[in-house]
Amino acid sequence: MIYRLFAILTIVAIVVASLLLARQQGAGPVSTTVQENDWDEGYSARDAKLIETGSDGLPLYTLNAATIRQLPNQDQVQLTQVQMSFRDSDGNVWTATSDSGQLAQGTEQLQLAGNVHVSGDLKGDSGPAQIATSALSLDIRGNIVSTQDPVQLLWSGRQVSAIGLKADLKEHHVALESAVHGTFPQ
């Protein structure tokens, strides 16, 4: 008797399962809801190299960084171990290095911090210029570097220190802001 009851329950279970399966298959397409997030997931990269070219196909600048990271919901891109090269209006190559940097999305301003060094040739045959400071702003399009921090400028055998600097590399103009001290060998 137990075998008959078990057999009947098994047959009933198979019939019920078949009816449910047939009902699901004939129900038409299944709709799926995709929920869009209101937040940005950000991105990151290691040993990254960014190159922006001009209309002539030549690089406007090349940016190398150990890491590039954009945090979620922020318009800032953070960089570490930054090395950048760019050309002035005469085609002279300038390089900038720093421990870290920040680039605001949608702007052309690169903020460099920690052991910042910029070097390149100013107009004429006066030799390379070197700028050293702890923080510096670089206008990528305008080729203008500026800082309000203490700065060392080494150019044509002359060493000058100051607080604050603005250098327009397109116009080959350097302005030291305050507390200027220099050494000029003869």
The run of helices and strands is HEEEEEEEEE
Shape: elongated
Order of strands in the sheet with the most strands? 1-2-3-4-5-6-7-8-9
Oligomer: single chain
End-to-end Cα distance: 120 Å
Number of strands: 9
* CATH class category label: Mainly Beta
Proportion of beta-strand residues = over 45%
Question: What features would you describe in this structure?
Answer:
The chain is mostly beta strands and 186 residues long. The chain has a single domain (43-183), classed as Lipopolysaccharide (LPS) transport protein A like domain (lipopolysaccharide transport protein A fold, Sandwich). Helix content is 13%, strand content 57%. The protein is built from 1 helix and 9 strands; from the N terminus they run H-E-E-E-E-E-E-E-E-E. It has one helix at residues 2-25, and strands at residues 43-53, 59-70, 76-87, 93-104, 109-121, 128-139, 144-155, 158-168, 173-183. It has a 9-stranded antiparallel sheet with strand order 1-2-3-4-5-6-7-8-9, with no helix packed on it. A hairpin with a 5-residue loop joins strand 2 (59-70) and strand 3 (76-87). The longest helix has 24 residues, at 2-25. The protein is elongated. The termini are far apart. Residues 30-35 have low confidence and may be disordered.
